[in-house]
Amino acid sequence: MVETLNDGEQTHFFKNKWGTYSATLFSPPEEMNTTHPTIIFAHGYRAQKEYYTWIGDCLASQGYFALLFTVPSNRLPNPQQWSDGFGSAIDYLLSKEETLHESPQKIGVMGHSMGGLGALLAGSEDPRIECIVGLAPATLPQHFPILREVYDIQIPILVQIGSKDGIVNPENVKAFFDQLHSKQKSYLEIQGGNHIRFGDRTAALVIGEYLIRLGALGRRFKDGRAGITFEEQHQLSSRSFLECFNQYLKH
Questions:
Q1: In terms of residue numbers, what domain contains 10?
Q2: Going by C-beta distance under 8 Å and a sequence separation of 6 or more, which residues neighbour residue 66?
Q3: What pLDDT score does 206 carry?
Q4: How far is Cα 67 from Cα 51, in angstroms, rounded to an integer?
Q5: Strands 185-190 and 3-4
Q6: What integer pLDDT is reported at residue 96 of this predicted model?
Q7: d(CA 251, CA 235)
Q8: Cα(89)–Cα(18) distance, rounded to whole angstroms?
Q9: What is the count of structural domains for the chain?
Q10: What is the C-alpha separation between 175 and 155, in angstroms, rounded?
Q11: 181-227, pLDDT tens digit by residue?
């Protein structure tokens, strides 16, 4: 089923062994008469695609199709649910190219936190993916064994992290990045940025309440106090990921 929302936005659904994924497709303005690469984006653990509308809007405004999806169970902490979602999303888009009036010739993947880890895993498994961006990818100790699967990736990779991130340790992210073998890799540490501010401002209130509840239960998850605004973090992040996608998917 395809449901048209606002101008340039459509709701889609696709399935795999994990269940049904809901997705929103952000389309570039019609006046952009050019080839449009496709970026597939996945949210973090306990989040959903609606928490990252700024990314869909940003990519579409710069001439990309952007498909943001929500995993069937965002409380199931299995990164394979996220990584499999990228491959299934590509399959779905290719099957719908007549409906969408364009086949995704150039494909990049992107994700935040658990979605960032999923994007990296997908890039190590699916040769159709040509560029990867990980926003604060989930390089937690429990993920170290599976992270070894992505060290040999040779396609372009951009990794971003906020210097005040209290959910994903910036030192772990940098150590992981240093072990990547790709000769086309880039790293950005956003000074004053934290974990939550990679998402929308309104969504951060929901995520923040969840982190507070975890803290009350004695869990160690507590994001750092940001030193910059949402808008400033979004601007620095988007400047970097657009430069990456423009270089490797448009030229």
A1: 3-250
A2: 25, 26, 38, 39, 40, 41, 55, 56, 59, 60
A3: 65
A4: 14
A5: unpaired
A6: 83
A7: 23
A8: 13
A9: 1
A10: 19
A11: 999 999 999 999 999 999 998 877 666 555 545 444 444 567 888 99
For the chain, the 3-state helix, strand and coil shares in percent, each to the nearest 5, are 40, 20, 35
Torsion of CA 18, 202, 55, 6, to 10 degrees: 90
User: What's the rounded Cα separation, in Å, for the pair 41 and 66?
Assistant: 7
**CATH number (domain holding residue 113):** 3.40.50.1820
Separation of alpha carbons 85 and 119, rounded Å = 9
Amino acid at 120: L
The token pair that represents 133 in the structure block: 């961006």
Q: Which residue in this structure is represented by tokens 């990456």? A: 244
Contacts of 54 (CB under 8 A, 6+ apart): 200, 234
| pLDDT for 233 beyond 60 | yes
Say what angle helices 114-125 and 79-95 make with each other, to 10 degrees.
60
Q: Looking at the chain, how many residues does it have?
A: 251
The token duo for 231 is: 């808008």
The rounded distance, in Å, linking the Cα atoms of 121 and 79 is 8
Q: Write the DSSP assignment of 101-157 as a string of letters.
A: TS---SEEEEEETHHHHHHHHHHHH-TT--EEEEES----GGGHHHHGGGTT--S-E
